[in-house]
Amino acid sequence: MVELYGRVLTRREVAAHSGALSQFAGVRLMTLGDGLERGIRMLEFRSGTGLRFTVLVDRALDIAECEYKGLPIGWHSPAGFRNPGLLDYEGEGGLGWLRSFSGLLVTCGLDHILFMDEAPAVHYRYPHRKSVKASIHGRVSGIPARLGGYGERWEGDRCFLWCEGTVTQATVFGEDLHLTRRIEIEVGTNVVHLHDEVANRGFYRTPHMYMYHINVGHPLIDEGSRYIAPIADVVWASHAGQDYQGQGVGYWRFPAPQLDFLEQVWQHQLASDPQGRTPVMVANDRLGIGFKVITRTDQFPCMLEWQNFQAGNYALGIEPSTNHVHGAAFARDREELIWLDPGAARHYETSLCILDGACEIARAEAETRALGRQPDEDYPQPSFNYTPLGER
After folding, report:
1. I want to staple 159 with a disulfide (CB 3.0 to 4.6 A). Which of 3, 13, 172, 187 is the partner?
2. Residue 22: pLDDT above 80?
3. Region labeled Disordered — which residues (predicted)?
4. What domains are defined for the chain?
């Protein structure tokens, strides 16, 4: 059954109330036509609840805009949604990626995440490629997808909106990694499901690292908004070795935009339910709106929190990651880098949920705290206890 506007309807009843489902909900393909965005194919999803989000086909099927009943959820950076043809990934000493960094979901990978790195390339069996240089957060988010399809699917009286495509990150004498992404949402709901497969289609054993940069902005992020997660341990904070409380911003209560704020990054070790699922949520109690991300700890064992409360760049990042915050060299030294054999694949299942009203926020918070109660203090001392991830 489809729940729309306070009524539960069959498929025939939905049809009886309109000439087409698109009056209430749907997914459609369009092409942006001006400025830095010119030429980008974009899919617009509307679930029938007031939830609208857009998927950039030509930027790795990342989620760009997201709003609920007219209230923005996703972050828009000054860089905008840049056509990937304008991206100089290796520019600016490895920081060129930042010139296309915007939107609710920015995918990082497929063979590298976090800060710049250079590693031996002997596994690619090509003497002229002595090393692989990686810029910040990898190449994938600057690659257009091959769109496999999109539309609506009915299962009895339930309707699902979906899209699917494949992003190819490949070179001669190097990696040949393919991300196949499927995005689905049931009509009448506020839960977006991401199904990702990263496969090695080549014939070299290839490293794999993966992370989601899930960026929420104002008005969800505002003075007094809260970060809620089943934190078993605060592992690391980027500023802990300096003046830990110098900016007056702890890990869970957010300030208004700050002049000259220096980004803060935390790594948390999270508890999970018996199925291995773990939630992270942000709540704005004043507006009665929340946002929850559900991941699997066997897929993303590390959770980073990015606080970018600088005026003009005001955002919070929820960052599930395959690896610890210190990146590729740290992973290699600890033998924690994922290696995909030829033909091997990894799968990732993630949900993004809108929480509408104080009751939904309270219910989600209670479920989260039942898994593990996060520290009450703003500045818990990091343990620097990096859980061994093992050879993968």
Report:
1. 187
2. yes
3. 370-392
4. 2-371 (2.70.98.10)
